Amino acid sequence: MSVNRIYLASMGHLDADILEDLEEALTMHFGFETRRHPPIAEPEHAYDPQRRQFSAVAFLQQAVEHCPPEAVKMLTITERDLFIPMLSFVYGQAQLGGKVAVVSLAQLRQEFYGFPSDGDLLRERALKEMSHEMGHTFGLIHCPERLCIMSLSTNIRHIDLKGSEFCGGCRAVLRENTAVTRAGGSEVLAWEERL
Amino acid sequence: MKSAWEILVVDDEEIMRESLAAWLREDGYEVETACSGREALDKARAKEYAIYFVDLKMPGGMDGIETMMEIRRLHAEASIIIITAFATVDTAITAMKEGAQEYIVKPCNPAEISMLVNRIIKVKNLQRENAILRKKLSRQYSFHDIISKNPKMLEIFDLIKEIASLRSTVLIHGGSGTGKELIARAIHNSGNRADKPFIGVSCAALAETLLESELFGHEKGSFTGADQRKKGKFELADGGTIFLDEIGDISPKLQLDLLRVLQERSFYRVGGSEEVQVDVRVIAASHVDLRQAVQEGKFRDDLYYRLNVITIYIPPLSERREDIPLLARHFIERLSHELAKEVVDLSENALKLLLEYDWPGNVRELENAIERAIVTCRSKILTEEDFNFLQRSIEDKKGWTVPTHLSLDELERQVITATLQRTQGNIKEAAAVLDIDRSTLYERIKRYGIQRERLVEK
Ligand SMILES: [Zn+2]
Ligand SMILES: [Zn+2]
């Protein structure tokens, strides 16, 4: 029954034309067939007018609802600036060891910091964030190796500083976990699926 | 190292609680959540978390501050981070005064919270490493279950190694609870008899005739109830070691029998005429000074010299106070396991209290005290309060200094008079307090000419 396919989708309108690059990178990094999913609408009631940001939890939940049953993973991309109640922002969110992840482009854009827009830099950052969040869906946790893609970035400088690859340790875990996923092994149900 | 630590997130709001938990899990921590102060306490009772995130404002019963204080009551050294919204920073400052390690205003910068968590975990890792190091050290100070770094005790360990394989009799001298049997076992186990039996007999526990048959066995029909031939401890210990505890208490007849065994290496069973040959190493122990007993004519001098080939004197715990922390932690490790209660250490103040106390019952009393504290304690760390029962006896003593100008008789007279005054002349009660027979008490009252009637009138 498992088709072993990763889906990639935009959630809401995307200004950036980067889905094709992301699709290619997904195939390369994780070795699954990657397919484009039709655009998904933004979740309702995700906007917090006080914070002028969107709830990452609501976006993740929307992704869960639209995730095709045959998908091993689904990555969604949004332009919206995401937050969780505790934190001022998040670059993305994923179900640890689960199926879906969301990456926000808002704070990856140079414009956010008052600089002129830079399409190449945005693409590079988006690729890194994508790999990072996908790593979480494959069960990887943050890596103490500062240059590893799985190291926690709490500011944009660090995203630019770190590489776009998994370090040796993370790659080993990833290889093992993708093998399990490919074999149709059971996956941990993350909390968002219970919401 | 990270996944070894667990974090508890306490918040009534599910999205808040679960999204923070998910974020921390991505960082590699085991995270559990609780939706109320009550649930948090239930969880904290079951185990200790490295960090507690507690929301300040929770409806229904316990708010964040109360929850924090209750957690702290369970785990004195818990790291608690109070979460607050902007409007309540004042309350957060109160929280800090009440002992919150940190407070964070939500929403907070990911870098800030990440640094805060890392800093706390770093300290926890360091503390854990220290605990492991301490455990290693205490193992280093352990010799056949005897734990010490006291120079006199270390000398004893050396002596034991030296004499372990000899057949010479050993006399162990030490107050009750100093671990005389442990020393005897250490001698047995480090020598060439280690794979042969070690048989212990407490000479104080049995009446003379029973002890005799216990030691030497008896033939069938040798006395009422002896319906079978029975081997005695000496026969059972053949090839190995016999440990005779409280040897100062044995009767003159048994002293003679024992002397014969030591001289001839043979004896007769009670009611028997066949000589039984044994190869047994004798280790004897006494809490009374046998030399003095010899001088007073209560103990045979020839037996004393036979026993006293090698003498080991175990100092009381009050003379090896440096061992108290080692021993206390050793007992915590062993007893918490036996009692299936997770207790890992004791607080500085608790240790201070143990160091101050006099330990008349020596190591055994310390062991009992640790056991009692573990049974009643409510957190993973034993605190001063868990040793309240010792504190009372320290305070009792403070008001009283040992007089140094009285004869023992005079001291006894005063103690009996004072006790009778307290019990208002009630003999039964006074005898119980003094831990002597009523007949003995009557005899002393007569001997010292204490006038009971006068006491009662008072
Ligand atoms: Zn991450
Ligand atoms: Zn890594």
Number of strands of chain B: 18
Envelope shape of chain B: elongated
Structural class computed from helices and strand pairing of chain A: alpha/beta
Helix and strand pattern of chain A: EHEEEHEEEEEHHH
Mean pLDDT of chain B: 85
CATH topology of the largest domain in chain B: Rossmann fold
Radius of gyration of chain B: 31 Å
What does the main sheet of chain B amount to? Answer: 5 strands, parallel
As a percent range, the share of helical residues of chain B equals 40-55%
- In CATH terms, what is the fold-level topology of chain A? Collagenase (Catalytic Domain)
Query: Shape of chain A from CA axes?
Result: globular
The strand count of chain A comes to 9
Briefly, what CATH class of the largest domain in chain B? Alpha Beta
Low-confidence stretches of chain B: none
Give the second-level CATH assignment, the architecture of chain A.
3-Layer(aba) Sandwich
Descriptive report:
Helix content of chain A is 32%, strand content 19%. Chain A has 195 residues and is α/β, with parallel strands linked by helices. Chain A has one domain (5-184): 3-Layer(aba) Sandwich (Collagenase (Catalytic Domain)). In chain A, strands 2-1-5-9-8 form a 5-stranded mixed β-sheet, with helices on both faces. In chain A, helix 1 packs across helix 3 (119-137). Chain A is globular. The two termini of chain A are 26 Å apart. Chain B is of the alpha/beta class. Chain B is built from 20 helices and 18 strands. Chain B has a 5-stranded parallel β-sheet, sandwiched between helices. Chain B has a 5-stranded parallel β-sheet with strand order 9-12-15-8-16. In chain B, helix 10 crosses helix 12 and helix 18 (427-434) crosses helix 19 (438-448). The radius of gyration of chain B is 31 Å and the shape is elongated. Chain A binds chain B through residues 51, 55-57, 83-90, 93-96, 136, 141-142, 152, 154-155, 190-192, 195, and chain B through 2, 13, 15-16, 18-23, 25-28, 83, 106-111, 113-114. The complex binds zinc ion (2 copies). One zinc ion is lined by residues 132, 136, 142, 152 of chain A. One zinc ion (ZN) binds next to helix 5 of chain A.
